[in-house]
Amino acid sequence: MKRFFYLCIIAFLAVFTSVAQTAGDVQKQVKEDFVPNIMNQPGQQYPMVNSEGYARFRIVAPEAKSVVVSLGLGGRGGTVLQKDEKGVWTGTTEGPMDPGFHYYHITIDGGVFNDPGTHNYFGSCRWESGIEIPAPDQDFYALRTDIPHGAVQEVLYYSKSQGKMQTAMVYLPPTYGKLVKGKQERFPVLYLQHGWGENETSWSRQGHAGIIMDNLIADGKVEPFIIVMAYGLTNNVKFGTIGSFTAKEFEAVLVDELVPFIDANYLTKADKWHRAMAGLSMGGIETKLITLRRPEVFGYWGLLSGGQYMPEEIKDPKAVRMIFESCGSKERPDGIRNSIDALKAAGFNAHGFISEGTAHEFLTWRRSLREMAPLLFK
After folding, report:
1. Beta-strand (E) ranges in 174-321?
2. What's the whole-model pTM score?
3. What is the pLDDT of residues 286-338, one digit of tens each?
């Protein structure tokens, strides 16, 4: 597990890190069809992206001596911006970035800042700037005007094991609360976990989980279900200690406190065959640990860039109705393929998905949710 965790972090760093290069050199190589990043704040032109996947940045800092844009978890490396005579710093990434969402921040003379041009998203244990590189298949997470939309609620619940209030985000499908043949419909629930450095807001904001579900439901590809996104108590885990990580603290919060709270306060189908757990990266590690220890709670299991199950780890083959595993093609796809083959050979209903051209990043996980959702609660 320790080796897997480090491989995930290394992959996350490697994919998004840009090598320093002057803006003038880059501009000779790229297509000049830049448009504002769709995640920009109102009225802000920068950062910009082009059709080839390059990103361009602009920072006004007349007194600064150095401005570097750092992309990816931890911000190693970056794109060095160049200053003009008016004190405006600009620069373009050395090469095209993977499509989809990326975290980044600005380092000005050694100080770390967020880009005032774009919105902030929780990652790397802090609120980071976010940029969206257009993807060829982005329609599945596009906000459509021609369909009904559900709602994402922020809920507070008391955690006795933590001794304090906790926050969760709850996606409710468009038909939630409406009468069907004179009765209120009840829904299955997916408990969907974020990765290290993120929190309960990550799946709904940068992951677009609610929008993806709205689109799938409208297209008739899934039956409506609720998604619960909780903070997984991951961000106090330090490098070098992952081998001792058990997820038992979060297990107490999730299984003994949050699940009963959701069942008591929402229109759920409150049994294991209408309850699923899945997670990305470290949330996948949590999912694996908890589902193997508490198979009586969840009937569907999903690991998104979060490791693999092997048949010998599952004590009762009848404890799970479907296992889903995924990763990006730039991660370790053979691990997914080998695991799925072994699970299928042992008689499990197992499905694997490889996101082509992506790594340990949110487009991998958005695509994974799109592929996993229709397989749940069958």
Report:
1. 179-180, 183-184, 189-193, 226-230, 275-280, 300-304
2. 0.90
3. 999 999 999 999 999 999 999 999 999 999 999 999 999 999 999 999 999 99
Q: Quick one: which of 220, 246, 217 has its CA closest to 233?
A: 246
Residue owning tokens 């190693």: 76
Residue 147: which residues within 8 A CB-CB, separation 6 or more? Answer: 214, 215, 218
Q: Which two tokens stand for residue 44?
A: 């802000």
Long-range contacts of range 157-160, CB-CB < 8 Å, 24 or more positions apart? 157/257, 157/258, 157/261, 158/257, 159/253, 159/257, 159/258, 160/257
CA–CA gap between residue 149 and residue 155 (Å, rounded)? 19
Among 175, 178, 151, residue whose Cα is nearest residue 224: 175
Q: What share of the chain is helix, strand, coil (3-state, %, to 5)?
A: 30, 30, 40
Tokens 């297990």 appear where?
251
Do you find a cis peptide bond into 47, omega within 30 degrees of 0? yes
pLDDT recorded at residue 73 = 42
Grouping H, G, I as helix, E, B as strand and the rest as coil, residue 68 is: strand
The tokens describing 182, both together, are 């004179």
DSSP secondary structure string, 157-174? Answer: EEETTTTEEEEEEEEE-T
Neighbours of 288 (CB within 10 A): 23
- Cα–Cα distance for residue pair 350/118, rounded to 1 Å: 40
